[in-house]
Amino acid sequence: MAINLLVKDIDSLTSPALVVFSKSSAQKEKLAKVTHSELGKKFAEAIAEKTITGKHQEAITFREMNHGGFRHVIVVGLGKENEITHETVRQSAATAFEAIRALKVKEAVVHFDGISAGKKDAANFLQAAAEGMVLTSYVFDELKTAKKDAEELNVHLVTKTADKAAKDAFNEGVILGSVVNFSRRLGDLPGNLMTPTILANSAVEAAKGIANLKVTVWDKARVKKERMGGLLGVAAGSDQEPRFIIMEYKGAAASKKPVCFVGKGLTFDCGGISIKPGAGMEEMKYDMCGGANVIGTLLAIAKLKLKVNAVGLVASTENLINGSATKPGDVHTARNGKTFEVNNTDAEGRLILADALSYATELEPQVICDAATLTGAMVIALGNTHTGYFTRNAALKNKIERAAGESGEWVWNMPLVDFHVADMKGVYADLSNISSGKGAGSATAAAFLEQFVGEGIPWAHFDIAGTGWAVGNRLPYCTKKGASGVMIRTFVEIARQHA
Ligand code: BES
Ligand code: ZN
Ligand code: ZN
Questions:
Q1: Residues 142 and 191 in one domain
Q2: Residues 451 and 362 in one domain
């Protein structure tokens, strides 16, 4: 799919498909309004009969309308006027895209002015519309012999006027959508085609040609030399070598402290010796989504040329079972010198993140944010609507809430207190990788991570176990079963706030 912004009068164009919008009325008995006045008149009957209601996410396709230069016309509902936000626009764009796709046309024009007329958030809406379209265009069918989407589709978002802010916002939406799709693909690839080596190579490849972005990859020998006992301990059970991926973007003076993003890149988690049950285990190919999304975050920051220094760190390995695998009770030493007992080999994400967070700390960053499919407990707590985040830093909490407000991603602040830390004390080593207490499994995991973050560094941990994939039943611009690319858009906003 290709999308572009066309600054033109919509009625001067010709295309096989035209998308216009409708709005529902605040009063029940009142009828919907179609935002294109001429078509509004033509559709008077459909409106009177309530075929067009303007309800959010409604899409009515009028085939063979032959209105002006347009063969088919699609009317997409925006909902009530006063309830339109950038997120409803993102979702309406998704609805529009699906309706266009169903027509099997090669080209369509979208009457964007119908959304933005009289709105001060026009630029914001343009970004959201672009994001919604690009995100919805994502299909993962490269492993099927018959491709669903072999047809090329060109979508033109049409507006009468666009200033520089609007054009920049549109471009930003396209960049963010494309990067999220890039990360989704990494997540959707199965474990045999997405190993730590392939993940690292994908980051290197994707960064090629992007100004001021450098990728360094550490192999197993280097990881050992760098004393990353957590990453090595998890990788011990796998025939695949681990990788530690370092992405550095320089968009500000060298003296400016970086913002640091850390991701869990577990390319397959069978649980290790503490093996997981078979049912649903195939989903553990998604255990690298935190890592994939951190790679996407750095790509986006660099492509958007943010005036910030940023570092992305991804610890990547498989968690499998060969004769050398870490056993319950084994003790390893993390990069910062702290020792931990591995009392459950399935609690492996925190062990590889321990080394990555220790390394992040050494960079003396302004802030550290990590993303990880860390605990099943998070799925129980928040399901697939909100990403739970943990931080003890009030200023960072405010920044996160503001960033998520801008991105449209839902986050929820979770508790992290000293009791959770106490639960992670080891018997034979400094720490245990599982809690001695009952419940709060996501918070105790966060408390474990906290032991590897330097004092005074603002840090937040985002547990994306519930939101990393399979959120398409909620969000129309996500696939039903695939990776979501969650937190990239929010992390980019967080980076922007530190510029
Ligand atoms: N990758 C899993 C967490 C997970 C589970 C993510 C389900 C998404 C969906 C993680 O490595 C894990 O297995 N955690 C254990 C920790 C426990 C042994 C303390 C869990 O949550 O069961
Ligand atoms: Zn696990
Ligand atoms: Zn895991």
A1: no
A2: yes
Say if 172 falls within a structural domain.
Answer: no
User: Whole domain around residue 105: which residue ranges?
Assistant: 2-160
Using DSSP's 3-state secondary structure scheme, residue 359 falls into helix
Q: Residue 74's domain is classified under what CATH number?
A: 3.40.220.10
Same domain, 56 and 89: yes
Per-residue tokens: 490: 């929010």
* Contact status, residue 157 vs residue 4, Cβ threshold 8 Å: yes
CB-CB contact of 31 with 121 (8 Å):
no
Segment 433-452, tens digit of pLDDT: 999 999 999 999 999 999 99
Cα(147)–Cα(141) distance, integer angstroms? 6
Whether the per-residue pLDDT at 476 is higher than 60: the answer is yes
Residue nearest to atom 17 of ligand 1 (CA): 347
Residue 434, ligand 1, Cβ within 6 A: yes
Instruction: Mark whether 357 and 482 lie in a shared domain.
Output: yes
Residue 433: CB partners within 8 Å, gap ≥ 6?
340, 341, 342, 343, 344, 347, 348, 350, 351, 424, 448
Give yes or no: residues 126 and 251 share one domain.
Answer: no
Closest ligand 1 atom to the C-alpha of 374? 3
Q: Tell me if 168 is assigned to some domain.
A: no
Task: Give the end of a domain, one of 160, 194, 214.
Answer: 160
- Residue 185: inside a domain, yes or no? yes
One domain for residues 112 and 28:
yes
- Tell me how far apart the alpha carbons of residues 307 and 91 are, in angstroms, rounded to a whole number: 30
What distances in angstroms separate CA 285 from CA 100, 121, 352, 371, 479, one per listed residue?
32, 39, 16, 16, 16
Q: Residue-wise over 68-95: b if at least 16 C-beta within 10 A, else e?
A: eebbbbbbbbbbbeeebbbbbbbbbbbb
Task: Verify that 147 and 189 share a domain, yes or no.
Answer: no
Give yes or no: residues 282 and 221 share one domain: yes
For position 28, what pLDDT does the model report? 79
Structural domain contains residue 166: no
* Protein residue whose Cα sits closest to atom 7 of ligand 1: 376
Q: Which pLDDT score is estimated for 461?
A: 99
Q: Which atom of ligand 1 is nearest to the CA of 276?
A: 13
DSSP character at residue 371: E
Q: Is the CB of 346 under 6 A from ligand 1?
A: yes
Q: List, by residue number, the catalytic residues.
A: 276, 350
Confidence category of residue 71, pLDDT binned at 50, 70, 90: very high
- CATH number of the domain that residue 430 is part of: 3.40.630.10
Q: Quote the CA–CA distance of 375 and 474 in Å, as a whole number.
A: 21
* Number of domains within the chain: 2
Across-strand partners of 70?
Answer: 15, 67
- Tokens found for residue 381: 């707590």
Scan for tokens 């397959």, then name that residue. Answer: 268
Which pTM value belongs to this model?
Answer: 0.98
Q: How far apart are CA 214 and CA 301, in angstroms?
A: 13
Pocket test for ligand 1, best of 282, 374, 379, 435 (most atoms within 8 A of CB): 374
